[in-house]
Amino acid sequence: MKGVHLVHDVLDAQLVDRKRQKMGRVDGLVIELRDGEPPRVAELLVGGSVLAERIGRWMVAISGAVSRLFGIEPEVTRIPFEQVRVIDSCVELDIDASSTNTLRSERWLDEHIVCRIPGGAGPERK
Amino acid sequence: MKTRVRVDMLTGRMVHDPAGQRVGRIRELVGEVARPGSGEYVVREFHLSTGGLIEALGGTQLARVLAERFGRHPNRIVVSWRDLDLSDPERPRLRRPRAELAAEQPRR
Amino acid sequence: MKKIAEVALGVVTGIGGFLEVGSLATSAQGGSEFGFQLGWAVLLGSISLMILMEASGRLAAVSNRTLADQLRERFGIRFFLAPLVVGLVVSLLVLASEIGGVALALQMATGVRFQLWALPIAFLAWVLLWRGTFSIVENGAAMLGLVSIVFAVGAAALHPRWTSVGAGLLPTRPAHDAARYWYLGVSILGASISPYLYMFYSSGAIEDGWTTEDLAVNRITSVLGNVFGGGLSLMVLVVAALVFLPRHIHIDAYEQMGLILTPALGHPGFVFFLATLGITCFGTTLEIALAIAYLLAQGLGWQWSENLRPSQDSRFSVTYTVVILLAAIPILLGVNVLGLTNISMVLTAASLPVTVVPMVLLMNDRDVMGKSVNGIVANVALIGLAVLTCVILLAALPLQLLGGG
Hints:
The complex is a heterotrimer of chains A (126), B (108) and C (405). By secondary structure, chain B is of the alpha+beta class. Chain B contains 4 helices and 7 strands; from the N terminus they run βαβββααβββα. Chain B has helices spanning 7-10, 52-56, 61-69, 98-104, and strands at residues 4-6, 14-16, 22-33, 41-49, 76-80, 84-85, 93-94. In chain B, a hairpin with a 7-residue loop joins strand 3 and strand 4 (41-49). The radius of gyration of chain B is 15 Å and the shape is globular. In chain C, helix 3 packs across helix 17 (353-363) and helix 10 crosses helix 14 (267-300). The termini of chain C are far apart.
């Protein structure tokens, strides 16, 4: 029976939502240990702090300091594995990116900076 | 109380058997659907690597891919989920002796 | 028919895009100090770039992901930090040099000090990226960059001994100052083989929607583009050799290069030089700013495309905006542009292994490349190149200390 290779095909893969909007990469993956049953693949994690943990304690310290400097709360987005539709050249989710926090900084920049500059917003394609 | 383990922090960790002997480093987790039709995936097996050259090169992902390229196929050990104890994720333990496991490996 | 147009465009991009502040400076210095003897460095640089561009283009066309995407996906975040950080730092330095190149061209044209041009240039570059599309940026820069053909005209007008030029295409021992000779050799290599070039090329392949049907176009474009582009760079070296070497002019500043085309073409030669310097550096400014934004966006999984409105990929757009501003700062502060260029060229050369070595693995990975994995010839070329880049890395620091400026 074909299996999903979690490290090779899921970890670090590009995440896209229902509308094929890019929403970050799979920065982390959580499995849930259960007595007498195989571990359940629980959720995907997206977030800078998740990456920092993978890189090492020194990175966690640096990103913590940077977050405090800018007054931002580092957020981790947890996506239940059940929402994965397809695992191909990217991981397609059965949700809208807007229902998650992954695009929080994207939205913020859009509202506060990009849309304030002429030519920033407008119809779909240039 | 269900223990949650980060897969990305698990990779690269050395697995020891009950006698304290090294078995290999966790390189891959293979998942499959729990029941046909359900959206739930469970981990069926773990793949461990024991390539000597790779460990010598620091066991990094790059070192491993480099070694594989030069024909040093690291011995892949397939471990069923039943045989791996992850209650302490930083010290994964094989539930059976290493030799027992080696005997069961699929022939290449 | 469409394929022919694509190839033509790709070749034009190669020609118009090859020359920029680094290749102009290093080829001119090379020619003025060692005559035709460093021709081999230009040749080696062009061939190497050919190999890397073809590979990164093929990678993108076949796997539908860019080189930066694959570096993160195949090797993980811990490894990816290396090409990310190194790429960011080195590319920023080169970007600053390019802005400096445009600023100096304007200073020489108008008399207004180059520092004052930093922000206007940065602003214009930013506007073009903000409002433009990928094709407009790439093709516009390429077309305008064709002005650099004037160097081929200039070289021909000076009637060099072409056999001597040919002899210089093989490495020879320098008659004097070996450290300086090899230092310039490495700088020329760094000017030709810049990671932002082949990383930008692979992003461009995705922007243009290349698939496995475009593999032939990819091959022809990378080869021809660099044959002509490298040829132009060689012409700069030839002209510098004929104009500066006999007069024992050692180039310490871009202003000295101003007269490079004058003996061949008269006063218009000066104007053509300024046009070449300004236009090619400006085009490269756009390219590097995008390349840096591509690297960050792709590595972290953000939405990205030059064909989208900035609002649809805000993190990507804000990145190239910030990057252009940061790179303008050294020029605003009056940093010596030639010095900055020389250092960034050597650093570029030294930074190559961190992308080239992984490429060897990627191009041989069937999961990534499918049937298009490297054959024997491609592997010999790429692995040989990877070894060369490691040698350059080891030699870079000693050479900078012994032969720099």
